[in-house]
Amino acid sequence: MMQEIGLELLKGIGKLFLNPLVYITVVFAVLLGYVRVKRERRSFRTRILWGWTEVKRLVADTWLFALILSVISIAAGLTVTMDWIVAFSVASILLVVLYVYQIGSPIFAAALAILAMGLGYSFSFIGFDWNPADNWMSVAVSVAILIGAVVFVEGWMIRKEGAHSASPILEKSSRGMNAAVYLSKRLWMLPILVLVPGDVISTYAPYWPQITIGQDAFGLVLLPVVIGFAQKARRTLPVYFYPVVGKAVMAVGVSVVVIALIGIWMPIFGVISLAVGVVSRLGVWLYFSMKERQGSYAVSPHNLGVMIAGVLPDSPADKMGLVVGECIRKVNGLSVTNERDLYEAIQINAAHCRLEVLDHQGEVRLRQHVIYRHDHHRLGLLVVR
Q1: Alpha helices for the chain (secondary structure H)
Q2: Which of 20, 98, 220, 249 could form a disulfide with 12 if both were Cys (CB 3.0 to 4.6 A apart)?
Q3: Class of the 306-383 domain?
Q4: What residue segments make up the domains of the chain, in order of their start?
């Protein structure tokens, strides 16, 4: 029995690499990094994060969640059909390729796949070329519970990683001055093991190994679930904005799971939960998008000093603990109001560079670091010019 399960597990993992969604997502993660670096160089003449960061973090940020959800999925007996997997993969590929990750949450692809199954079943009598499982509403219950949990993970990732991956962009304010907005645009992938009824999977792969539980046979498939995210911060600093967005998305995930659990007794609630998830997730994006368009920029030129728009990792500025949205008021005792003043003041006494900084609460704090004379231009700060 254990040998059979082990073989099935290995085959299920191998199935992951047969799904074109995996390779398409990797390609677009590379594209995300390329576009981000190009945009940062255009605005600030340098990049903040390495161009391959998006690819490197594609699974590295989520593998533990994928493992936990795989265990929960199998232990709870959540089963999906190959019909849904195919439709879900096609919908996910479409959303990834469109590059509009404001609607990149897996709740959209999952709902589209269930809709395709439902329409195929309803219109099969007029010759619609689709043969979904008759219990597509029951499948919707399993899908909603699983994807609701993934949406919760999506919110968690936005909360923890959104500000870190936010890339500054210079744009003109209504007064014609440069100001910074922050775009966090990411792809994450969760390879999740799911159970597929044996009689369904054998239709596609007659020799696929199966696990027998009681009188039923099941196959294991490692399903790539892709999370796309894109949201801009303008009036709120990223460090405060993305955790709030993340919490709202987590609440959507919890709601989907709770409603879907009712579907165990009334299967129609599986479909309802997916519909609620789609509307709610879309609502979160629209609400925060409209809210950020109102009011002034959080990072714009300040008459009290030089506003920090970005900090390069492992730079002297990073080691001094400077953060986005703070205002450098004095350098080595000299007041500064622009980038040129800043770097000229640093050269006065680079060995003991002392900064007077206004933090987010408007309180003054002092920072000091050694900046070698030939490295005075490498403080590691991106400022609003």
Answers
A1: 2-16, 20-44, 53-60, 63-75, 82-98, 106-122, 136-161, 198-204, 238-262, 268-293, 316-319, 339-346
A2: 220
A3: mainly beta
A4: 2-293, 306-383
